[in-house]
Sequence to fold (342 residues):
Amino acid sequence: MRAMHIQQNYSLKALNSFGVSVSADLFTALRSSDDVDALISWRKANLSTPCLLIGGGSNMLFVHDFKGLAVVVCLKGQELIAEDDDAFYIKAAGGENWHDFVRWTIDEGYAGLENLSLIPGTVGAAPMQNIGAYGVELGDRLQSLDAIDLSTGERRTFNNEECQFAYRDSFFKRQQPDRWLIESVTFRLPKNPKWITAYAGVEAALDGQEPNARLISDAVIALRQSKLPDPKVIGNAGSFFKNPIMPIEQWKALRAKFPDLPGYPQNDNKDLIKTSAGWLIDQCAWKAFRDGDAGIYEKHALVLVNHGEASGKALWDLAERIIKSVKEKFDLTLEAEPRVID
Ligand code: EPU
Fold:
């Protein structure tokens, strides 16, 4: 078997969307199944060396250099593998860019992923935090995925239920980090799609036109571009905090004090309600705040930004100040949505 190509003291600045200057002691890129096999062998021989899996690097904040092997997943390929009366089944490799894959499905005439347009990251990283936007979550469209347990080298297929999807959460996120390498994902895309346009401005952006996958995708792209910074221009990881979900009673008590508190009932559990972390942070006057190059985006309070040379530590210190102030004002503890690598 081919030996793994490992580079030393490798800069991860271009591989994390915050653009934080950090390095990894060791680095390799997976481009083929031979590279994957080589990694499995290396892992068995080096179990005590920490291993970090990077997809698009758009959902991680590095607070320090990484003392171990950083692995960037570059596996490519996407194809129709089956169809039945109701759906097309499309398989995509873990290293495909998520948005390019979504646009490819639309170009090929498959619908169902349009609401998830322009989300940064890769296909293989998407199931980790069950990416979601504009009324659709990845878990609504995933048929199965193929993953490798890097602690044993075992290959396993997970069906949708086994992925245990929840709001920005999955089986994989709850496991020991970097244990599972997601090689490919198979999507079930309906032949008679039900357009989801009721959410947050999509309907208005369609401006009376009859919906189709491309129009919804274009509307979602325009909405995201109007609210969220482009990581190529300003370092960021999208929403930095999860929207808090709480029992209705707790939400009502809080709303008695703050009558404008947003509330979004949860379809899967009528006893729970989600509020908006963006609103809570906005109320604490953090929007557009800046301390050196670490800041909060001027158009959206949920987005932590690196205006240039902020360190991961400076960004995390600011996030912790925000968590503390929201706790003091609302007695709610915000959780970071991206992975914080300490
Ligand atoms: N709001 C404010 N001030 C702000 C921002 C938001 O008051 O600065 C309030 C407003 O009331 C607004 C509400 O928050 O109506 C919701 O804002 P928005 O529609 O922008 O959605 P979000 O809850 O902030 C979530 C996802 C986004 C996703 C959008 C659209 C999370 C953590 N974030 O944001 O996902 O694009 O909905 O579906 O669930 C991401 O995960 O990186 C991400 C961008």
About this structure: Residues 229-341 form a domain with the Uridine Diphospho-n-acetylenolpyruvylglucosamine Reductase; domain 1 fold (CATH 3.90.78.10). The first helix runs from residue 33 to 45.
